[in-house]
Design brief:
By secondary structure, the chain is α+β, with helices and mostly antiparallel strands. The chain contains five helices and three strands. The chain has a three-stranded antiparallel sheet with strand order 1-3-2. The radius of gyration is 15 Å and the shape is elongated. It starts with 16 loop residues before the first helix and ends in a 6-residue tail after the last helix.
C-alpha cells in the first residue's frame, strides 16, 4: 500500500491531502463491523490464512456480501488472496497494519 509507505506519526508532521485520503479509505474499510470481524478471523487463524469457505461460514450473510467485504479489504491493502483449485485463501498484509500502527503511535503524554 503505497499511500502509507513511510508515513510519519501524526504527532510529528501533518498529513498531506493525498495521504490523508488514502489512509481514510483504510479506516473506512475497518469501520464496518463485518470487515473488522473478517480481519480478526484472518489475523487469529493459526497458519495465517483462511479459506473463504470458513469466512463465509462465520456469518449469516450471503456469499456475494462476504465477497464484497473481502474485495474492500483487498482494495485497501489489508488482505491478499491466493486461489487454490476452487477455493480462495486470504492472508493479512502485515506491512499495512504495521504502517497504520506506526502512524497512530503517539506518546502517552500527547
Amino acid at each position: 500500500m503505497e499511500i502509507l509507505e513511510c508515513s510519519p506519526p501524526l504527532m510529528r508532521e501533518p498529513l498531506d491531502a493525498e495521504r490523508a485520503a488514502g489512509i481514510a479509505r483504510v479506516f473506512k474499510a475497518l469501520g464496518d463491523p463485518v470487515r473488522l470481524r473478517i480481519l480478526s478471523i484472518v489475523a487469529s487463524r493459526q497458519g495465517g490464512e483462511v479459506c473463504v469457505c470458513d469466512i463465509t461460514a462465520a456469518f449469516e450473510l450471503s456469499q456475494p456480501t462476504i465477497s464484497h467485504h473481502l474485495k474492500v479489504l483487498k482494495d485497501v491493502g489489508l488482505l491478499t488472496s491466493e486461489r487454490r483449485a476452487s477455493w480462495v485463501y486470504y492472508r493479512l498484509v502485515p506491512e499495512t497494519l504495521g504502517e497504520l500502527s506506526a502512524l497512530l503511535n503517539t506518546p502517552a503524554t500527547a
